[in-house]
Write a structure and sequence with these properties.
binds flavin mononucleotide; globular; 7-stranded antiparallel beta sheet; 2 domains; NADH Oxidase
Length: 393
Amino acid sequence: MISPAVRLADAAARGPYDGYLPAPGSQPIARVDGPATPLRRAERLSPAWPLDRKVGALLDLSLAAVPGWTRPRRVPSAGALYPVDAHVFAGGIGHLYDPIRHRLIRQPDRPDRPGPDGVLVVLSLAPERTRWKYGSRSLPSLLLDLGHAVGALAAAAAVVDLECWIQGDADTGPLSALTGRPHSLVALHLAEPAAGPPAWELGGDRPRPIAESGDLVTDALIELGSGSPEPTWFRTGLPRFTDDVLRDRRSADPPFTGSLRSADLDALLAGTPLLAATAEGLRDAQGPVASGDARPVLAAWAAGQGFVADAAAVLLYAAPLDDYRQEHVRAGLAVHRALLGAQARGLRARAIGSWGQADLGAALGRRPGTSLVVHGAVVGPATATPTGEDTYA
Ligand SMILES: Cc1cc2nc3c(=O)[nH]c(=O)nc-3n(C[C@H](O)[C@H](O)[C@H](O)COP(=O)(O)O)c2cc1C
């Protein structure tokens, strides 16, 4: 069931462009003050490192800005707005991660919790960063960015030999009590291999619910914060990429023309719920789903981004949106995996987050609303082939 505020915010994002433009000079700046602890970078990785050193490497490979810059970062973000903040709890002490200086900032007045072992990372959203650029169309982008951050952390955990358990459907009340921030939506538990799921629960005192804000996106996030009555821990099952893949990932610029080797496409789809639209038709990890070239329609749905129409492959995550928060996080995670897979194979890729009225199920003759495009990516060969000179392998 989608609640009213979420339905409205989704409709605003999927509806026609409302004419909103960001006010120049008013972009929110993420300031992080307080005593800072510098972190190690992920150089000469060793599985024998102690947990605290692994945490530095993990954050370096997942969320850090390229040293000396505020962007780009290891993780992609819609509009390069980076609305996801990471709060790190280790040894009973809470810190906020500063991705630009690669430091942990001690957070005063935070409860000295939680967890007997391991490290807890809580991800919170600062919606104003995304809303500055996209206005009332921001809700899906915020949640997809959250999914990419989860994927980036899980992929980095595998590189530094840490086990990573994720809870994406917890009540934000206890998580926000830990971080001091509203919209604290995801918890990741990091521990030495074979530690198993965390033994503790993210329960505890719930602060009073936040009053309705009157802002569409904030109201939707408040409603999505109530979470599931029985939150669960899960693992992503991401393949293990090399540290170079995580460090070097970047969004390629258009065009994405040409064709992919079928072995590459198979590898990007394997073990994922993604669909791929190519000139030949639509397929998933199991095989063909429909014939015909869907890419021009996909380009029209994707706010008219023309390079979608002639990309070698358009990867799609489609789902019903009954579980709005979880489906967006899963979509961000699945597309992040595909971006890293493309990087590992020397392919060029870029996430595509704006999908308008893209009801893929209805287009394929199924019941409307059962298979809406939530997220996607364009993928092309290492060198784009000029349109009209495609080669087929
Ligand atoms: C959720 C999400 C949605 C995105 N949507 C688009 C899009 O619709 N069109 C586009 O050209 N790039 C899109 N991008 C790519 C971002 O513009 C890119 O990640 C950002 O500029 C940072 O650059 P980098 O990925 O090279 O680090 C999206 C990225 C994310 C994570």
